[in-house]
Amino acid sequence: MRSFLFLIIVVFAFSCKAPQEKKTDVGMLTQQVIGSYEASLPCDGCISIEYQLELESDSSFIEHITFLGNPNGNYEVHGNWHADGDSMLTLNPGRLAYKIKVNANGSLVIIDAIENHLEKQPAVLSRMGTSGTDQSVLLNDIWVLEAIDNIEISDADYNRDIPQLEFHKVDGKVMGTTGCNRLNGTYTTSGNNIAFGPLLTTKMACLGKGETQFVQAMNEISFFKIVNLKLYLLSGSTEKLRFKKVD
Known about the structure:
Layout: H1 2-16, H2 26-33, E1 35-41, E2 49-55, E3 60-67, E4 74-83, E5 88-92, E6 97-102, E7 108-113, E8 123-127, H3 135-139, E9 142-148, E10 151-152, E11 164-168, E12 173-177, E13 182-190, E14 193-196, E15 200-201, H4 210-218, E16 223-227, E17 230-235, E18 238-245
């Protein structure tokens, strides 16, 4: 009788034992994550962190990091990566990311970062070209100038109006004012790259140096970024012009 009861207890104990968590097939995971990823990440002290990560089949990686608004904020970092059974990637020696979680949908999430800039929102990396974010749609608005070369403008620099730009995505037209003269022209975008066609202005004589600075900066623009209802026009990673949306 005791043997029978002992057998029942043993069978019951094994039947109640929690199933073991299924581990990820590391070899399959390694093949699945090979490719290029990108994200625009929050930044303390700059406009944003533009981040690209290339995971190569030979277990090497390349990080391309741009701290927008910082002229010296461009980095390219090379290292090696490996995957483990917890769907985790480790980068060594990563400049920004260290530990990365692989999601079931194929996106990556930085869960342990070298840079302390990623606490405000999840740092999700999408495969290049699949993020669906098109900032040129947000560009389609009216913007009034706030700063040139990261220096707040002064009303004294403009004897008529504060410079404004109005973008029309449908026909690729841009219009506005230099602060004194009317401005018209064209623009094209590719991702966050922007190129202005010939910008024509009226020829009214203007007091102050504001118009000259504004027009010169417009001729240097190659990149744009919209963050928190602010439009930044940049030359490379250097901020040239900052605008706010017209209320």
